User: Which sequence fits this backbone?
């Protein structure tokens, strides 16, 4: 039972990381029908910036958080304007390759600036294990779980309780109708891409004390996180949180009781199964054509 409880809690922490990254896919998909296929590289960039602000410049955590969010938002605006919007305006699907190219560019720049070696970032809540009876969990894992829940609660409140959030939802339904209602749909699209970039940077900031800061850290994280919104439904942030936690627990159980090499196989098999029987995802609704 102790072993079960230990891997169960670890699975929740892993799932929280996946969910925090995965929601970035949802933000851009709902408003623009665009996916940043290199989102994992943006997570990596957030982690590398965290190393610079936190370790090299010795800034405190609040200033590090602000710095990462500002830089990521600015890069998101630039990336949307020059590598996504021109292709959307032209009716081309080349934005798929463009997002990947930007991600690979980030990896190359990270290797030039920070090198290829893994760089340590101290945990934000200490290194002593927190124990619940015989079960132990690192403070950083608890912080990731709490931060993920807070982010999803904030997003839920943003979408359903604020004017901007309602504008986001309206743009997700139909950008043309949104424009006719006097809402600047173009601004909503830029803001959504910037928000997704900020969320990726925040995920990098939270996970880098565990994974270490290295240019290749985002590739696997982004790929695994992509499974979550496909299973849950790209337009369902609430479902993404639930499926992210569930997938993390499943992955941890498979690694703990069976063989760690099976976890990726089961994850992609699960994604393929869901796509076969319910293409819109477990929590999604069939996609309607825009007006």
Assistant:
């Amino acid at each position: 039972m102790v072993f079960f409880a230990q891997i169960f809690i670890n699975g929740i922490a892993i799932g929280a990381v996946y969910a925090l990254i995965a929601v970035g896919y949802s933000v851009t998909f709902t408003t623009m029908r665009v996916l940043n296929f290199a989102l994992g590289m943006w997570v990596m960039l957030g982690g590398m910036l965290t190393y610079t602000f936190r370790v090299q410049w010795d800034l405190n955590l609040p200033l590090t958080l602000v710095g990462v969010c500002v830089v990521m938002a600015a890069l998101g605006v630039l990336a949307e304007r020059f590598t996504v919007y021109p292709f959307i305006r032209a009716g081309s699907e080349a934005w798929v390759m463009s997002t990947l190219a930007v991600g690979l560019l980030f990896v190359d720049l990270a290797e030039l600036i920070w090198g290829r070696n893994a760089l340590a970032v101290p945990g934000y809540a200490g290194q002593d294990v927190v124990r619940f009876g015989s079960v132990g969990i690192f403070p950083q894992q608890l912080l990731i779980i709490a931060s993920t829940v807070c982010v999803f609660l904030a997003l839920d409140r943003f979408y359903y309780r604020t004017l901007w959030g309602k504008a986001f939802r309206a743009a997700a339904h139909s950008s043309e109708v949104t424009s006719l209602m006097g809402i600047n749909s173009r601004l909503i699209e830029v803001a959504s891409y910037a928000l997704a970039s900020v969320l990726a940077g925040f995920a990098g900031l939270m996970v880098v004390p565990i994974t270490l800061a290295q240019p290749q850290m985002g590739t696997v994280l982004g790929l695994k996180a992509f499974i979550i919104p496909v299973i849950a439904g790209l337009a369902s942030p609430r479902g993404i949180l639930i499926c992210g936690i569930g997938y993390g627990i499943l992955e941890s159980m498979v690694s703990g009781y069976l063989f760690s090499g099976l976890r990726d196989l089961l994850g992609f098999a699960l994604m393929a199964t869901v796509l076969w029987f319910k293409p819109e995802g477990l929590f999604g609704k069939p996609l309607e054509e825009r007006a």
